[in-house]
């Protein structure tokens, strides 16, 4: 086991900064110190360990095998120090620290803004960072610890290594123009779309994964002819005859005059949104407090309009 107690915390902070920023210069800027100072501290750390932590031979800085081995311990050590300080502050009624929140690309953000603003008012000493991305990237950030909690779109089950609560679970439907041969169908087996051009969100999104997994179960690979980062854009493209859009039912219901939407079966593809966080390892007090607040708040993107009670653009 690595003797982390022999290392200065500052060296571990620099090591982590270089890893996350991808270079010594950016790490120095993040730490607000001169770049030579960072290099000196990393050399001392490498001498202490007897191993080089970074491969400096290429154009980009990469972790060596020893660096990869050290990384989870460095994160754990720094997180433990931060959590200890935060626990003491919490006992004194002074919650402070930093929390990073992930949100889906193209999600209407009014409710999320309200949530974060209210949290800031309640805990002004906590720095809140917001990251917008696709579900795959947000899940990776949660697992690696660069994100504390996030709203992610999943294809039927919580990703390994995470836990959370389901906040929406909606069927996907086929959206076609009114004179399409499918428009009069009351429901549609998914295999009926095998030869049709489909519109979907891009790869890396929860809805795309849900569609591809369901099509695989039905025995075919979907022909994706057009993509957009927001489901409503897919509906509008389908309304212009581009093909069949596959989107959440509440989104399709927003356009009843220009399109028809048909429930899909055998299997029924579904998209769901979860508020997720790491299943293992301690959560910082700020992250725990924000998770508690988020579970009580409306889902980001929700609206009270009866035709749009689900998240119109939050299924990345």
From TrEMBL:
<dbReference type="Pfam" id="PF03466">
    <property type="entry name" value="LysR_substrate"/>
</dbReference>
<protein>
    <submittedName>
        <fullName>DNA-binding transcriptional LysR family regulator</fullName>
    </submittedName>
</protein>
<keyword id="KW-0805">Transcription regulation</keyword>
<feature type="region of interest" description="Disordered">
    <location>
        <begin position="296"/>
        <end position="316"/>
    </location>
</feature>
<dbReference type="InterPro" id="IPR036390">
    <property type="entry name" value="WH_DNA-bd_sf"/>
</dbReference>
<dbReference type="GO" id="GO:0003700">
    <property type="term" value="F:DNA-binding transcription factor activity"/>
</dbReference>
<dbReference type="Pfam" id="PF00126">
    <property type="entry name" value="HTH_1"/>
</dbReference>
<feature type="domain" description="HTH lysR-type">
    <location>
        <begin position="7"/>
        <end position="64"/>
    </location>
</feature>
<keyword id="KW-0804">Transcription</keyword>
<dbReference type="InterPro" id="IPR000847">
    <property type="entry name" value="LysR_HTH_N"/>
</dbReference>
<dbReference type="GO" id="GO:0032993">
    <property type="term" value="C:protein-DNA complex"/>
</dbReference>
<dbReference type="InterPro" id="IPR005119">
    <property type="entry name" value="LysR_subst-bd"/>
</dbReference>
<keyword id="KW-0238">DNA-binding</keyword>
<dbReference type="InterPro" id="IPR036388">
    <property type="entry name" value="WH-like_DNA-bd_sf"/>
</dbReference>
<comment type="similarity">
    <text>Belongs to the LysR transcriptional regulatory family.</text>
</comment>
<dbReference type="GO" id="GO:0003677">
    <property type="term" value="F:DNA binding"/>
</dbReference>
């Amino acid at each position: 086991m690595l003797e982390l107690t022999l290392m200065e915390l500052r060296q571990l902070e620099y090591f982590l900064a270089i890893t996350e920023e991808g270079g010594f210069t950016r790490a120095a800027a993040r730490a607000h110190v001169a770049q030579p100072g960072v290099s000196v501290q990393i050399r001392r750390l490498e001498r202490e360990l007897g191993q080089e932590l970074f491969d400096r031979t290429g154009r980009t800085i990469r972790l060596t095998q020893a660096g990869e081995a050290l990384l989870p311990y460095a994160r754990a050590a720094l997180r433990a120090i931060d959590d200890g300080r935060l626990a003491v502050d919490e006992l004194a009624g002074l919650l402070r620290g930093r929390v990073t929140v992930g949100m889906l690309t193209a999600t209407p953000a009014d409710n999320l803004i309200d949530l974060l603003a209210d949290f800031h008012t309640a805990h002004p000493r906590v720095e809140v960072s917001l990251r917008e991305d696709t579900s795959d990237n947000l899940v990776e950030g949660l697992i690696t610890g660069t994100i504390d909690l996030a709203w992610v779109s999943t294809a039927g089950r919580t990703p390994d290594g995470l836990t959370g609560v389901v906040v929406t679970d909606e069927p996907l439907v086929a959206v076609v123009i009114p004179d399409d041969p499918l428009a009069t169908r009351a429901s549609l087996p998914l295999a009926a779309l095998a030869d049709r051009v489909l519109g979907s969100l891009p790869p890396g999104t929860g809805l795309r994964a849900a569609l591809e997994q369901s099509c695989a179960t039905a025995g075919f690979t979907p022909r994706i002819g057009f993509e957009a980062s927001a489901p409503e854009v897919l509906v509008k493209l389908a309304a212009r005859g581009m093909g069949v859009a596959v989107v959440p039912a509440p989104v399709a219901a927003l356009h009843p005059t220009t399109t028809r939407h048909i429930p899909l079966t055998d299997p029924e593809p579904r998209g769901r949104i979860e508020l997720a966080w790491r299943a293992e390892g301690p959560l910082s007090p700020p992250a725990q407090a924000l998770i508690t607040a988020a579970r009580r708040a409306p889902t980001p993107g929700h609206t009270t309009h009866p035709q749009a009670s689900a998240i119109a653009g939050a299924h990345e």
